[in-house]
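Entry 14. Structure prediction run on the chain below.
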Amino acid sequence: MKQLLCYAALVIAIWVGPEVHAIPVPNSNAETDLLTVEFSGDEVVSVSSLEFLSVAVDASQIVDADQFNHTFSRMNWSRPLLISLAKNLAPAVLRIGGTNADKIYYNLSSATLPPGQGLPEGYTLAMQPSQVDALFQFGAETGLGIVFGLNGGPGPRGGDMGPWDPTNAKAFLAYIAESGFELAGVQLSNEPNLFLANFGKYLQADTLGADFKTLKELMRSVNMTNVQIYGPDVAMQIPVLGQVFPDYLGKVVKHSEHTIDSVTFHWYPLESDHCPAKSIDPWIATTRKSIEYSTASSIDSAVHKSMESVKKYDTQAKLWLGEGALACCGGQENVTNAFASTIWYVDLLGRMAAKGVNGVVRQVLSGGRYGIIDDANLYPNPDFWAAVLWKNIVGKTALHTSTGLFEKSISAYTHCSAQTAGDIVIAAVNRGHDPYDISIKGAPEHSRALLWELTAPEGDLSSRQVLLNGKLLSVSPGGALPHFSPSVVNLPFTMSPHSIAFLSVSVNATACYGSNI
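Output returned:
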């Protein structure tokens, strides 16, 4: 069924024709183009959560289930280097989800079930107490808040996609409470609008909406009213078809009747060669497609539709990108774990904050071909370095920003500095082959700025190494990160081709004092 759905989408897409924006060609002029970034120091467009930049681990990695042609291996949470690296991302959410999350039975007895045996009808995987313990111990050691995706699939629905039965989920939550573990949030179901493809059964949006009311009551019954509820994790990225079923997300939110704290959607702009229709798929990820403006901006419609649903049905809820990476189905080798992904990722963070999205969950922390950490050797991939820099430099308050006619080559996003009150940080991405001189309108004349510029060695977008101001970033054997020393530059400064720049400037921005930074 899943293959049929993908092929149908592709046939429609090929008929319609994908949107294409060419990457700028090298500039034949001797002079470098001048781009002026305009911002408003008192015009706040959004204030995101402290956990805005967050990460995920696929449930397959916990229960050692096959996913995407064995892309994932079982997660070893106890590795000191992994713990040391993950600490640098806190405060953040560690979201547990994925397709296999809706196949898991929580076997919390002392007896370990053999794989696929002894399970109630509708369940194909089991999670053991030792696996739960290891996950929550990792969260405690790293400071990452666990948001756990509860099974909302066929098993707890009696096989007919009727109302959700919380019995097994209640046992899981009771175990968490008895063990003294901290739970930051829960979800219910993963990409429910694709259940017809993944399970051969359609889950009505109004049924799922009502299930969130059941979940809310369950959290009250186990004294977990402080635990946030996220959902419904609707997949918005299906080519041409979008949500597949019109306004599925909106209908769930409507029928949940204000029981969801953070509304979540999923987005992947490209696909990998592990996706079903790889031989004819025009969206297979390449380094070239990764840095195109159309790839970066393709999420805009999904955000708009999701935001409209929140405003219409639940004005108190926040909107989160609950799962995303440059390419789905486990990622694409030398693309989603390379510098090409980082150009897309930094743009995504800036773009989501500018649109009022409260959190962005990057799939995944480690594992697959899109992990921000290589799970085999625990070496950070380029997106990890960008994530840590963002955490350290970029504040939670986004300001109005414009780059004028250069948007398809340069994207720039202005935030309050996370380090100094009154200062701003501009996160800029240069997709093009040419350098650009960057000036900042509103900065004092002859200003200097602090610059952290990320580039790939020799401009190789498929590189898994990163240079910070020309120096290679690396981790010590004990897991210590280098000191992220900025360069001092005069404005305007010249931004390298295919680069990412974080530029900190003292401007006494009115909005960047007090709790807003």
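The longest strand covers residues 33-47.
Filed with the rest of this week's runs.
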